[in-house]
Write a structure and sequence with these properties.
Layout lengths: L1 H15 L3 H28 L7 H32 L17 H7 L3
Length: 113
């Protein structure tokens, strides 16, 4: 989930600036805090299950916390490095705001012959 947020923000920043390195930096500063906070909240939530009397639930909580923490590490360390190395500028221009489509029911109501 965090990876999608980072990549989406990176794509938005890529359309605004000329350098991929600058787009990575701006994406990182834009969503970095949110990535960290959501991970902290999720790990804290799973850590409450560590005190369960049921062994399988404790193992699940530990594995979930480790997996989520590892994903954050990958998002903060490896993803920017991979983008800096392999990201290519999209040839697709930025989407323009669509024109408002006419409402056929409204037109029928307003235009009577």
């Amino acid at each position: 989930d965090d990876t999608i947020h980072f990549l989406t923000r990176f794509r938005e920043e890529q359309l605004l600036v000329d350098s991929d390195d600058e787009a990575i930096r701006r994406a990182f500063t834009g969503v970095g805090t949110a990535l960290i906070m959501t991970t902290v909240i999720l790990v804290a939530g799973f850590s409450t299950v560590i005190f369960s009397d049921m062994r399988d639930q404790r193992i699940f909580a530990i594995m979930s916390g480790l997996t989520i923490s590892s994903a954050l590490f990958g998002d903060l360390v490896f993803l920017p490095a991979l983008l800096a190395r392999y990201a290519k500028r999209s040839q697709v221009p930025a989407m323009e705001e669509p024109e408002e489509a006419p409402d056929p029911i409204l037109e029928q109501t307003l235009v009577r012959e």
